[in-house]
Amino acid sequence: MSDSRPIDTEIDESAETLARWKWGGVILGFLGLQILLSGVAVFLATSDPSNVIVEGYYEQALSWDQQRARQAASDALGWKSSIDLGKPQGMLGERLLTIRLVDPAGQPVTGCHLDGEIFHHARGGDVFKLHFQEQDPGNYTAVAKLQRSGLWELSLKTDRDAQHFQETRQFKLKDSGEFQTVATSPANRAGDQPL
């Protein structure tokens, strides 16, 4: 019997050592899994284009009065715009976007430097900048990558001499390729008609 006690003690010690490694490994495994999942969560949170941090938001908030004054001056011009969207071309869904600008008398507004930004509401982080070229009097065109159906928002800004026009429009692009104007900036809603 004296020989069996050291063997039992050695078996107990090796079983205890094995249990320590096993349960220590389980704990470390769970900690490693937590670190991995946290890393994936951080990656998804920072790389998702549907999450947007608006650049210059604080500065825009500080200059709210100046923005309202610019919008009032734009509204006072009485210019109206309409959108025409061409058929998709190429693999990237590029479309010819035409903006027609007219004055209160219905005459084309010519000689403008027209720029815009467009984005899909589901992907607010993917903002595409547009630079329009005047093709005909009052008709300004740019190529826009509109690959997905749904709600899009277009912001327009133009300068002509000392006149500044700005407008925000929303339109819905259907799966069939057709589009319909949803809303415009408040000043232009009264004269807006669905396309």
Features:
alpha+beta, membrane, Immunoglobulin-like, 33% helix, 195 residues, FixH, four-stranded antiparallel beta sheet
Structure description:
The structure is a single chain. With 195 residues, the chain is α+β, with helices and mostly antiparallel strands. The protein folds into 2 domains: 12-45; 79-181, Macroglobulin (MG2) domain (Immunoglobulin-like), CATH 2.60.40. The chain contains 3 helices and 9 strands, in the order αααβββββββββ. The radius of gyration is 31 Å and the shape is elongated. The termini are far apart.
How are the SSEs ordered, and which strands pair?
Elements (H helix, E strand, L loop, with lengths): L3 H44 L9 H6 L1 H14 L2 E6 L8 E9 L10 E8 L2 E9 L1 E4 L2 E7 L4 E11 L2 E11 L5 E6 L11
Antiparallel strand pairs: 1-2, 2-6, 3-4, 3-7, 5-6, 7-8, 8-9
Short description:
It is built from three helices and nine strands; from the N terminus they run αααβββββββββ.
